[in-house]
Amino acid sequence: MDYTAPNITLQARPSAPGHSDSALKKVFANDPGLVLQLLLVIPIIAAGILLGINTIQWVLVSFVTLLFLVAGVFRTAALLQINQDRSITEFHAGRIRSMGNALVTITAGLSLITYLFVFVPQVVQML
């Protein structure tokens, strides 16, 4: 092993936050579904405020919502990487696309189930 060569992955760069900002801008510009995901957060927060959910329910709702948004960002970042990296074969690209879509679908289902468990009893109690 050659210990004289610098390990590029461990070198910190002062412009790393700037790169992550531009990367997030690129992700949101290339996936309009992420904007839709963010717009779905507004009615969820409004429902939580109107129904007066407690702290534990806010934590659950916030956690699954954040999980759903992060899954969308990761899926879009993976798709952008597929478009940039020519060493990824079409077989692997298809599997990456499928896994990204499955991840977003699973987190969307988990979010929906959590929203039902949190909001439906509150609505029934109001009626």
Q: What does the secondary structure layout of this molecule look like, with pairings?
A:
Blueprint: H1 16-30, H2 32-51, H3 55-84, H4 90-126
Helix pairs in contact: 1-2, 1-3, 2-3, 2-4, 3-4
Report what the structure shows:
With 127 residues, the protein is an all-alpha fold. The protein is built from four helices and no strands. α1 (16-30) packs across α3 (55-84) and α3 (55-84) runs antiparallel to α4. The termini are far apart. The mean pLDDT is 83.
The termini sit apart by 71 Å
Shape: elongated
Total number of beta strands: 0
Number of domains in the coordinates?
Answer: 1
Helix/strand/pairing category? mainly alpha
Q: Report low-confidence residues grouped into runs of 5 or more.
A: none
Question: In CATH, what is the class?
Answer: Mainly Alpha
CATH topology: Helix Hairpins
* Mean of pLDDT: 83
How many H/I helices?
4
**Content of β-strand:** under 5%
CA radius of gyration: 20 Å
Order of helices and strands: HHHH
- Approximate helicity band: over 70%
The CATH architecture name reads: Orthogonal Bundle
Largest sheet: none
Q: What labels would you give this structure?
A:
single chain, 127 residues, mainly alpha, Helix Hairpins, 0% strand
